[in-house]
User: Which sequence fits this backbone?
């Protein structure tokens, strides 16, 4: 093959042990990046409730704005009604009296319409207040638990990171037993092959198989592996080791 030949059985054995350490580190790194199920569940609940609360508060603000607008209109119309009534009392003719009476009636009708519109707004705001109180209560109950789970997860992550550092130190020591060129080739293959850069070759009757892809290996490839040469599987491209 186009790589380094004559790696030897001991170098491949050391490389296989190095890979086991790499896989342990990969597993620990995955644990660091993952979140416990309970934390995910509680976090999702809190986020859903926060979203619900935001929607409720936005709706409450819209209703309050509309209700306040009606209240201001009613206040303005009430003042106009009183002014019209005062002017009516100063009217000099029956015609003027009738004009003011019609004007006052129009104002009263509009005030009644606004009051009718305001009543359901008030009821809706009261219902929203109850919903907001419910959601805020649920959030108050959940947030302490979320904080506990987050704190516990921070401790878990710190412990895992310390373990990763320890394994990396062990890995560095193991790497000393692997020729630099072999190590470089293994690492390139591992990046391309989902963490597996070297696999065992297993014997099944008269055939030899790659344990990485389960392909039957040609005889000349198997012979090189048995001899301890640096050999790749012709199918998946991983380095092959004959095992103990």
Assistant:
């Amino acid at each position: 093959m186009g790589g380094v030949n004559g790696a030897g059985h001991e170098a491949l054995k050391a490389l296989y042990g190095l890979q086991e350490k790499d896989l342990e580190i990969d597993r620990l790194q995955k644990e660091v990046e993952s979140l416990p199920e309970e934390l995910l569940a509680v976090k999702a609940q809190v986020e859903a409730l926060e979203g619900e609360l935001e929607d409720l508060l936005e709706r409450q603000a819209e209703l309050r704005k509309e209700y306040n607008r009606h209240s201001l209109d009613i206040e303005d119309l009430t003042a106009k009604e009183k002014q019209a009534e005062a002017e009516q009392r100063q009217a000099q003719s029956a015609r003027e009296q009738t004009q003011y009476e019609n004007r006052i009636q129009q104002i009263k009708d509009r005030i009644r319409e606004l009051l009718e519109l305001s009543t359901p707004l008030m009821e809706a705001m009261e219902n929203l207040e109850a919903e907001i109180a419910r959601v805020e209560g649920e959030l108050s109950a959940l947030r302490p638990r979320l904080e506990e789970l987050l704190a516990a997860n921070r401790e878990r992550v710190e412990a895992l990171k310390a373990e990763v550092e320890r394994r990396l130190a062990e890995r560095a020591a193991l790497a000393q037993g692997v020729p630099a060129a072999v190590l470089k080739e293994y690492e390139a293959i591992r990046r391309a092959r989902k963490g597996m850069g070297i696999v065992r070759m297993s014997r099944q009757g008269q055939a030899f198989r790659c344990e990485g892809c389960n392909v039957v290996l040609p005889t000349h490839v198997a012979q090189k592996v048995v001899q301890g040469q640096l050999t790749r599987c012709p199918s998946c491209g991983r380095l092959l080791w004959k095992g103990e």
